[in-house]
């Protein structure tokens, strides 16, 4: 095989090798970036959960708030009845 005839296949093989090498390198970089983003997302989710817990401390729960709203409603009704009696008297 003459050197001129071997040049093109060798050059193509070299270029394909370069493309494969850089594609593999790029894929590894993308995988590392995705892992980094997943780590950051986990840290953010943990921080959100911690904030929710911190906010929830010392505050009434939903059932407690509902009971409180019901009691306020009862007191408001009683006050209205007492005012009506007072005005009627």
Principal-axis shape: rod-shaped
Q: Helical proportion?
A: over 70%
Total of helices: 2
Instruction: Report the β-strand fraction as a percent range.
Output: under 5%
Rg is 37 Å
**Which residues form runs of ≥5 with pLDDT under 50?**
none
Please summarize the sheet with the most strands: none
Mean pLDDT: 88
Distance between the termini: 123 Å
Draw up the topology in text.
Blueprint: H1 3-56, H2 62-88
What report would you give on this structure?
The protein is mainly α and 89 residues long. 91% of the residues lie in helices and 0% in strands. The protein contains two helices and no strands. It has helices spanning 3-56, 62-88. The mean pLDDT is 88.
Quick rundown:
By secondary structure, this protein is mainly alpha-helical. The protein is 91% helix and 0% strand.
Structural descriptors:
89 residues; mainly alpha; rod-shaped
């Amino acid at each position: 095989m003459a050197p001129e005839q071997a040049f093109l296949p060798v050059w193509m093989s070299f270029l394909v090798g370069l493309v494969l090498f850089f594609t593999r390198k790029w894929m590894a970089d993308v995988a590392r970036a995705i892992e980094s983003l997943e780590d950051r997302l986990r840290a953010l989710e943990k921080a959100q959960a911690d904030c929710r817990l911190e906010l929830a401390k010392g505050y009434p729960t939903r059932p407690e708030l509902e009971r409180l709203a019901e009691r306020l409603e009862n007191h408001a009704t009683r006050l209205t009845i007492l005012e009506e009696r007072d005005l009627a008297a």
